């Protein structure tokens, strides 16, 4: 039944409505595919009983003519989303077997729309990482391979389980989160489409926090239309989230295929960083030409504070992380490791519960927030953040509708290849994506070609606040020009 797993979201939805197969049959096909692909380590928890129960409920609703927007469609859920009655760990030892008694707002919306949960997907511990190598459950494997090589590649981070599962066709689509590129970078590495919505478009309630002013929920899907369908059911106002914005959710799917004639697409000169591979530069120019051929106007723009975005991000994000993760002390939250006194218990609990990258970011965050360094680091980084946001506002005020950039500085790298690299070298994976989070803007990563080694490469489109529709329209043009990219089933 693997052919059922080759259908897109839109195709599967149409076939279910026509009763060509049942939701139970569709989900059984995915459960079989998941079992065959366990070597990818994309899932940290499979929920077959829940999936089949909800699929049967979907069949009943379809029979009654009451199908929701996602009725019967099998999805994977990043392990950062709280799921009622189902273990949620943020892929950290410190949460142990935490089973939430509540559902995140986003997954609640998707469930109400009829979506079926196949299981919980791997991610970097507390979403801190660019390769998904910090997970307490081990590293998910990218289903793609370099030409002539069997070396395992990373699926990107922090949403590596989501991107690997979608690319391997062991879920139709997946939830993910993006704090500095954690949707767009893994999507780029796996030939999938990743959408980071405007900050406030999707509720953060019930999602384990990393950096609260940067985190945003979003989808990873096989193509632009599927991403638009998923996004439509994830977005929406939530009074429990003080940062949620009460604004209507448009029909994103209707934007796919919309003409881009007359749109002005900005190409920022500051994104031409030193050492950029020639194939990335070529891909970028090719994407601009494809949009131009579709009727868009390409204009060079300037975002002068771009070079400060990465260092500012790695001050703001760890600062917020150190605050958010302070609750995991073995007393109020998290698994406890005993000690001779409360101080030693704190030390033992956090040393055993947190991995090295999480500990590093907590320490950086505590340092930049400390009395002697708060003004020198944290306050200055927030000022830079304001300038970055103003750069984008200036460009959009000048009539630019969207901005085109590379999504990543390279294709996927090997598992363990960066083990001896400095943390800063790993952080450079986010060089093209962090500005979007710092400014609270929407961004989408869309596959646009293959590297010389046969690996996916992607372009990024950045939009005005709450104008995801323009991004879906422009991303669809690039997708149509380049086709879709599918990994071979080698596992």
Automatic annotation (TrEMBL):
GO terms for molecular function: ATP binding; glutaminyl-tRNA synthase (glutamine-hydrolyzing) activity. Its EC number is 6.3.5.7. The keyword NADP does not apply. The keyword Transcription does not apply. Residues 28-471 form the Amidase domain. GO terms for biological process: translation. InterPro entries: Amidase, Amidase_CS, Amidase_dom, AS_sf, GatA. One of its GO terms (cellular component) is glutamyl-tRNA(Gln) amidotransferase complex. Belongs to the amidase family. GatA subfamily. Allows the formation of correctly charged Gln-tRNA(Gln) through the transamidation of misacylated Glu-tRNA(Gln) in organisms which lack glutaminyl-tRNA synthetase. The reaction takes place in the presence of glutamine and ATP through an activated gamma-phospho-Glu-tRNA(Gln). Hydrolyzes indole-3-acetamide (IAM) into indole-3-acetic acid (IAA). Heterotrimer of A, B and C subunits. HAMAP family: GatA. This is Glutamyl-tRNA(Gln) amidotransferase subunit A. The lineage of its organism: Bacteria, Pseudomonadati, Pseudomonadota, Alphaproteobacteria, Hyphomicrobiales.
């Amino acid at each position: 039944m693997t052919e059922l797993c080759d259908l897109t979201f839109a195709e599967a939805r149409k076939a279910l409505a026509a009763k060509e197969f049942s939701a139970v049959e569709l989900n059984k096909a995915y459960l079989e595919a998941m079992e065959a692909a366990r070597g990818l380590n994309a899932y940290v928890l499979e929920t077959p009983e829940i999936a089949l129960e909800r699929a049967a409920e979907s069949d009943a609703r379809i029979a009654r003519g009451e199908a929701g927007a996602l009725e019967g469609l099998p999805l994977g859920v990043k392990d950062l989303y709280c799921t009622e009655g189902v273990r949620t760990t943020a892929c950290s030892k410190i949460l142990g077997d935490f089973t939430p008694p509540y559902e995140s707002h986003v997954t609640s919306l998707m469930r109400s729309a009829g979506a079926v949960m196949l299981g919980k997907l791997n991610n970097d511990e507390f979403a801190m990482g660019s390769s998904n190598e910090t997970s307490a459950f081990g590293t998910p494997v990218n289903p793609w391979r370099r030409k002539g090589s069997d070396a395992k590649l990373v699926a990107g981070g922090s949403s590596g389980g989501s991107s690997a599962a979608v690319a391997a066709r062991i879920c139709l689509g997946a939830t993910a989160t993006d704090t500095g590129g954690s949707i767009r970078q893994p999507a780029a590495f796996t030939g999938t489409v990743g959408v980071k919505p405007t900050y406030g478009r999707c509720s953060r309630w019930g999602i384990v926090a990393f950096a609260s002013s940067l985190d945003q929920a979003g989808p990873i899907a096989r193509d632009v239309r599927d991403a638009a369908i998923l996004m439509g059911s994830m977005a929406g106002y939530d009074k429990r989230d003080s940062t949620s914005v009460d604004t209507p959710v448009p029909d994103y799917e209707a934007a796919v295929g919309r003409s881009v004639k007359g749109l002005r697409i900005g190409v920022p000169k500051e994104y031409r960083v030193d050492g950029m591979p020639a194939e990335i530069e070529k891909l970028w120019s090719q994407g601009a030409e494809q949009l131009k051929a579709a009727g868009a106007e390409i204009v060079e723009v300037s975002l002068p504070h771009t070079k400060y975005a990465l260092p500012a991000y790695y001050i703001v994000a760890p600062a917020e992380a150190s605050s958010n993760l302070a609750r995991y002390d073995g007393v109020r939250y998290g698994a406890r490791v005993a000690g001779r006194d409360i101080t030693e218990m704190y030390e033992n609990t956090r040393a055993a519960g947190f991995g090295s990258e999480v500990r590093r970011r907590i320490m950086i965050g505590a340092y930049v927030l400390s009395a002697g360094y708060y003004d020198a680091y944290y306050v200055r980084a927030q000022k830079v953040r304001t300038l970055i946001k103003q750069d984008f506002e200036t460009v959009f005020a000048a009539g630019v509708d969207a901005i085109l950039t590379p999504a990543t500085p390279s294709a996927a790298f090997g598992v363990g290849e960066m083990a001896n690299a400095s943390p800063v070298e790993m952080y450079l994976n986010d060089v093209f994506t962090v500005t979007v989070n710092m400014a609270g803007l929407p961004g989408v990563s869309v596959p646009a070609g293959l590297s010389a080694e046969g690996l996916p490469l992607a372009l990024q489109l950045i939009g005005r606040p709450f104008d995801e529709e323009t991004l879906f329209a422009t991303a669809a043009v690039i997708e149509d020009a380049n086709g879709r990219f599918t990994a071979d089933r080698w596992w």
